[in-house]
Amino acid sequence: MTMTGMAMLFVILALLAALPSASVALVVTRSTALGLANGLAVAAGIVLGDLVFAALALLGLSVLAQTMGGLFAAVRVLGALYLIWLGFRLMTAGETTSFVQPEGGDGRRHLAVGLLSGFVLTLGDIKAIVFYASLFPMFVDLATPKTADMLMIGLITAASVGGVKAGYALLANRLVSVIRRRGAGKGVKKAAGGLLVGAGSCLIIKS
Question: How far apart are CA 100 and CA 128, in angstroms?
């Protein structure tokens, strides 16, 4: 890959990652409700899911993945139901519910759940592999892909998608800190919960 090609691929993936989506809603919500680390965990899960799809596209397995559309649709529905459940939990949370990051075992469990939820939610979008399979030939020859090119595409995918999602997590966490100091924490939870319910409902409708 040329330097120009790398830059173009990075910009394309970053712009797409920045578009409003269920994954963005999940990153923002977990970052505001459970802390920055949880938002970053979701972002890491999203990156892992994208890397799986990118690898399938580079290895020429996109057709195989599409034949398993039923499985990916089921994953998509499960992810949507999780978003709706989490949204209702936030909307019905009392004023005493803390925004503080859980410690110890609970903290690690929340991070693991965040990572897994981001991964599963991403895997539910089977259209992503079709997109990658259509995009990558602009930069590499998929008939005879070079190992160096495949690794570079993986790095660019992780950096662009992960960077944008991490940016959302950071901005959401900073914003909620300001709002919390003004005593509007409960309103943030309800708004975040409504965002998740809406995102989950849209996913089910699309399924």
Answer: 34
For the whole model, what pTM was predicted? Answer: 0.79
How many other C-beta atoms can be found within 10 angstroms of the C-beta atom of residue 128?
21
Higher pLDDT, 35 or 45: 45
Domain parsing of the chain, residue ranges: 35-93+113-206
Measure the CA–CA gap between 180 and 182, rounded to whole angstroms. Answer: 5
Give the pair of three-digit tokens for residue 136.
Answer: 């990558």
Would you state the pLDDT for residue 171? Answer: 93
Q: How far apart are CA 30 and CA 85, in angstroms?
A: 13
* Residue 35: partners with Cβ closer than 8 Å, 6 or more residues away: 99, 100, 101, 173
Contact (CB, 8 A) for 193 and 81? no
Residue whose pair of structure tokens reads 């919960």 in the numeric block: 193
Q: Which of 31-35, 64-68, 127-131, 184-188 has the least mean pLDDT?
A: 64-68
Residue 83, pLDDT score: 77
> Cα–Cα distances in Å, from 89 out to 59, 60, 102, 120, 190?
41, 41, 17, 20, 9
Contact 155, 50 (CB under 8 A): no
